[in-house]
Every structure is written in structure tokens, then in C-alpha cells.
Amino acid sequence: MPKAVAGPEIERLIQLLARMPGLGPRSARRAALQLIKKRETMLAPLAEAMRVACERIMVCSTCGNVDTTEPCTICRDPTRDPSTLVVVEDVSDLWALERSGAVTARYHVLGGVLSALDGVRPEDLNLDSLVSRAADPAMREIILALNATVDGQTTAHYVTESLKGHGLKVTRLAHGVPVGGELDYLDEGTLTAAIRSRTPF
Amino acid sequence: MPKAVAGPEIERLIQLLARMPGLGPRSARRAALQLIKKRETMLAPLAEAMRVACERIMVCSTCGNVDTTEPCTICRDPTRDPSTLVVVEDVSDLWALERSGAVTARYHVLGGVLSALDGVRPEDLNLDSLVSRAADPAMREIILALNATVDGQTTAHYVTESLKGHGLKVTRLAHGVPVGGELDYLDEGTLTAAIRSRTPF
Ligand SMILES: [Zn+2]
Ligand SMILES: [Zn+2]
Hints:
Chain A is α/β, with parallel strands linked by helices. The first copy, chain A, has two domains: 8-56, Helicase, Ruva Protein, domain 3; 66-172, Dna Topoisomerase Vi A Subunit, Chain: A, domain 2 (3-Layer(aba) Sandwich). In chain A, 42% of the residues lie in helices and 12% in strands. In chain A, the strands form two sheets. In chain A, strands 4-3-5-6 form a four-stranded parallel β-sheet. In chain A, strands 1-2 form a two-stranded antiparallel sheet. In chain A, helix 1 packs across helix 2. The radius of gyration of chain A is 21 Å and the shape is globular. Chains A and B meet through helix 1, helix 2, helix 3, strand 2 and helix 5 of A and helix 1, helix 2, helix 3, strand 2 and helix 5 of B. Chains A, B: A zinc finger (C4-type) spans 60-75.
């Protein structure tokens, strides 16, 4: 704990900011100072936005998304394809896929991936609710949109096993060259996958 | 403007977080999500700390420091040496010097440095108030604790000129090898300065 140099109100703000992902103690000090200097344009609006978020935002009990309604906007959207679920690790992945516009179905947020190292076990993930949702007679396909990491793939296998016997198609995202990606920056595994899954031009 | 995927309350929080120094749009999304997930332990306390900071923190009209009292704690501290002022660019430099414990005097925050590139002119800095404070008959020394950059040194020269005629000693921080610093990572200017200012062992 470094020597406190500002008043307790500023120190408290710095300490809390330093716990945010992406900000260390040093950048938390800079951020606090910036916020204080721009009280009307930054600090006051951010304080208010956080208060509102705090009061209104909740986790969707159906899919694990965060929203201000329960169930969330996506779960309540009647135009979404009811025959498919896209399984993601985290809400940030759901957001990324929504930005892409490629998903017309609903999601299921696992809330993590299995990890022996971090001690994440199957019961720590939202797996039971996934199995329940998958049992819906309208369900046809489960798309596993998990990170292409060891833990992500271990989880993909576990989820696939858990869903056996429901007669569902279980798919995963394609591997390949990222759009705009340069070949000589890609690892061999990606290049091999891209060659194997090549498509007609 | 990327497609909004979360509700307006979350989008607003992300947009405001993205304007904080050290956080871009991507890390702002991650930070917002983290805050929402840890509502009780992070989002609520941070919202409250910001509200309190917003209400109570002000800029000291004497020195430019930020504090919850006016004048600030440092300016009101009767044990501080009244014969010396330490001139800094920003409050963050004041904080850094206070953490070092090496300053027993008070400060003067310029609020920037002269910069032709950024269009910062003398009238944009807290220079008039510095000249007024320097005119105090008790004043003996002005320590220029400005960054060792071109703009910092230009500003140091300008401040020195502005203070002429008050019979004050104007000093600046020593150049040299940082404590714990490795020689072969230092530039030649620093090494030359360190050799020239060498001290008996
Ligand atoms: Zn939902
Ligand atoms: Zn002050």
C-alpha cells in the first residue's frame, strides 16, 4: 500500500478504479485525476451511469445475458430462430457475435470454461440450464462458439457429451484465416485448418 | 459507432468508460461487464465513490492541487516550509513527489507545459498566480520539478524568466541514473549528465 497523498475520497476512488480490468494502480491515478478535472463532462455522467446500471441491470435467468429486463431482450425477441442455441463462454462473446450480425438464434452463456488450473468444474458453469433448454422439442442445433483454446475445446467436448441423446446437431465455429489476416502472422494449426477447409473460389 | 448490442444503460456505461484514459472501446466493454457482474463489490462502491468525489473534490485556488478542502491540505499545513515552492506540470507529479516524501515545501501546479505543437501558451498555464506567490517576502527558492522533455525544459526557461527580479534561487531536479536503473538502458544524455554530476562515493 503506497503512501496516501490525496484525501480519503480521492484515494478511495483510485483504489476502486485500480481493481478494474485494464487499469493498474498507476493508470488508476491518472484516470481518477482526469475524471476529477472533467467533473461535469466525465465524472458526473459516469457516476450517474454506474448508479443507473447498478439499479437496473440484471442477469437473464434463461440465458445468462445481462440486460435491464428479465428475460433479456434477446430471449424475448419472437423473431429469433427457436431451433438453435449459440453457446458462449461469456457475455462479451455474445456481444461480439451480436455485433457481427451473423446470429439469428438465441444464446446460452456458460459463465466460464472448464479449467483444471483455475479449478473451474462442470457444476460451476450454467450447464444444467443448457441441458434443459436443449430438451425443448423445437431445438435442432447447438452451435458451440467457444474460444479455440485448450480449455475452450475441453469444455466443447464436455458440453457435447452432456447433450448426447437429445438427437441434436452439435456444431462449432469454423477454423481459418481471419478476414484481413496476414498469413505469416498465423500459427501452423490455423493454416493447416484453413487449407483443409478450403472452399471453391 | 459500432452496432449497439446491449441495452441503452449498458451502452451508455461502455461509452463513458471508453473515454477514460487507459481504456479503449474494447477494454471499456470488458470493464463494464466486469463491473456489472460484480455489482455489489465493484459497481455499487465505484458509483458511490464517484458521486462523493463529484460532490466534494475541488481544485485549490492557491496551488492547483485537487482536494476536498479549499485551500488544499498541503497549502493549509503549517509545518510546510514557507520559503520554497515546487513547480510541477500536473497534480500527478505532485502526487509522485509526495509519495517520495522528499518535499517538505508546498507546490504550484502549472496545469500543463508550453507547447507550440499543442498550442499551449503562457496564458494557458497558472503562471500569474505563481509570480504572485513568488513575490511573498518569505520566499527564497523555486524548485522546477518539470519533466525532462523539450516542452518541460522550454517551460522551465520561461518560468525562470518570469521570476527574474524577485531575488529568488531557481533550481531544477538533478539529472542522473535512476535508482535501480541499468546503464545500458539509459540514453547518452542521461549518462553524460550522470558523469558530469558525479558525487564522492
Ligand atoms: Zn436471455
Ligand atoms: Zn493548495
